[in-house]
Write a structure and sequence with these properties.
The chain has 452 residues and is an alpha/beta fold. It is built from 18 helices and 20 strands. The protein folds into 2 domains: 261 residues, Rossmann fold (3-Layer(aba) Sandwich), CATH 3.40.50.11440; 153 residues, LarA, C-terminal domain (2-enoyl-CoA Hydratase, Chain A, domain 1).
């Protein structure tokens, strides 16, 4: 494979593989060779890095890139790809990049001399630049008829004004796009809320159950790729497959975001998807503390819902969580519902940020809504075992379980109950009744909310 984006063609290099272990020296060789061939001398370079909601040996990855980039580039900045997540505080950034703790460098300046680390300031218009517009007709084509409106592409100013931007991060099954990583670090990672809302709503129309874990170019991935190509900056990527809950690299690929992502996604689909012979009745999804609200801890539901039996239940067990979302307060008003609840009452909900509507449907899962009777029929039950009060859970259309009553050991021995530790990254699916595993469909008939 070869890349043609930018002034210098760069071959896509891949090391590791499914269930392999990439050694630090192998990663160093990969980055050293890629940087040497990329022609980055004298450039302003931006690293687009994940926030703290993903398993990732980020200090190793950023440290390796810093070691080989800092001697040759003019400036080096890391922008945290928040999408519309909460801005990270200084101490959280230190923890993210492995400084300030026992046995660690005392500061970012000591660990990464010359590197600036900043949040993607998605709520500050002065830090965003419009780089183009995808016409409504093209959006309709890319979304396979699900959406028909112009899409302005607005990107973080630091990324747009850099010579080269390098995505750095892992690839996991994802409820909106199929598999995360690659250009997704640009959109939604460092984009404005409007196009984030559009892509997330298209994913919601397809439904998380259908799209999650798909390695091909889904409609959402097609929209993201189209928008990313409008960024004038040269785009490269170091895409990784990380053993969930650890800092162990199974694979790493360096090239364009498209090629590096495809190589890593193929491996992640083999290591981060568990195929079951029968559906689970009740799941206790034990959420790590890296998920600090339901907006992110909902991944425990996204990743298990496809493998839960009709009428079954997923319990999001996160006793450290005390709020649904720090940023997106609308979720407290609309609650959690299936896709058709919103589509069939579109006039009542179209003014809400579509990303909030999408999050709602992703967690609530499959269901139907009858506008004549006002009855919503949901395929599974979703229950929170958190510090969020029962009254709030009821208000947002979720079940409640007192976390103090949860005995994980006893539940793990209970027939019909599956306890999943470190939930949120590995996807669970049931094998088809006939034949082997297949990719989830992404072109089935779904709702549409054309509003051109």
């Amino acid at each position: 494979m070869s890349a043609t984006t930018g002034p210098t063609a760069l071959p896509c290099r891949l090391i590791g593989g499914p269930h392999a272990r990439v050694l630090d020296d192998d990663l160093d060789d990969l980055v050293r060779s890629a940087v040497a061939d990329a022609g980055l001398h004298g450039q302003d370079v931006v690293l687009v890095i994940p926030d703290g909601t993903r398993s990732c040996p980020l200090p190793l990855l950023v440290g390796t890139l810093h070691r080989h980039l800092s001697p040759v580039v003019r400036s080096l900045t890391a922008v945290i790809a928040l999408g519309t997540h909460s801005y990270m505080e200084a101490h959280e950034i230190d923890q993210l990049l492995g400084v300030g703790g026992e046995g660690q460098p005392a500061s970012l300046a000591e660990a990464y001399p010359g590197l600036s680390v900043v949040n993607h300031e998605w709520a500050d218009p002065s830090m965003l630049v419009e780089v183009g517009t995808i016409p409504a007709a093209r959006i309709r084509e890319l979304s396979e008829g699900r959406l028909d409106r112009d899409a302005p592409i607005v990107i973080n100013r630091r990324v747009v004004e850099a010579d080269t931007a390098i995505v750095v991060g892992p690839v996991f099954p994802h409820e909106v796009v199929g598999m995360s990583g690659g250009n997704k670090y640009f959109i939604p990672g460092v984009a404005s809320q409007e196009f984030i809302d559009m892509t997330h709503w298209v994913g919601a129309l397809i439904t998380s159950t259908e799209i999650i874990g798909t390695t091909g170019i889904t409609p959402v991935r097609a929209m993201i790729d189209e928008g990313s190509r409008m960024i004038p900056t040269r785009r490269l990527a170091l895409c990784c497959v990380v053993r969930s809950g650890t800092g162990d690299l199974e694979a790493a690929a360096f090239g364009t975001p498209e090629e590096a992502w495809a190589a890593a996604a193929s491996i992640a689909s083999q290591t981060h998807v568990e195929w079951l012979d029968a559906p689970m009745q009740r799941v206790i999804a034990v959420m790590p503390t890296r998920y600090d609200d339901i907006w992110t801890a909902a991944k425990g539901g996204y990743k298990t819902e496809p493998a839960i039996a009709d009428g079954g239940e997923v319990v999001i067990y996160a006793p450290h969580v005390s709020e649904v979302s720090e940023v997106h307060h609308e979720i407290y008003d609309i609650g959690y519902h299936c896709r058709d609840y919103f589509v069939k009452q579109w006039a009542d909900f179209q003014h809400i940020h579509w990303g909030v509507l999408a999050h709602s449907t992703h967690l609530r899962g499959q269901g139907t809504y009858d506008p004549e009777t006002g009855q919503e029929q949901l395929r599974i039950r979703v229950t929170l075992a958190t510090q969020i009060p029962e009254s709030v859970c009821t208000r947002i259309n979720l079940g409640y379980l007192d976390p103090d009553t949860v005995d994980l050991q006893a539940l793990s021995e209970e027939p019909g109950t599956t306890v999943i530790p470190n939930a949120g990254e590995v996807l669970y699916r049931v094998r088809p009744a006939a034949g082997g595993p297949v990719e989830p469909r992404t072109t089935s008939s779904t709702g549409s909310t054309d509003d051109s």
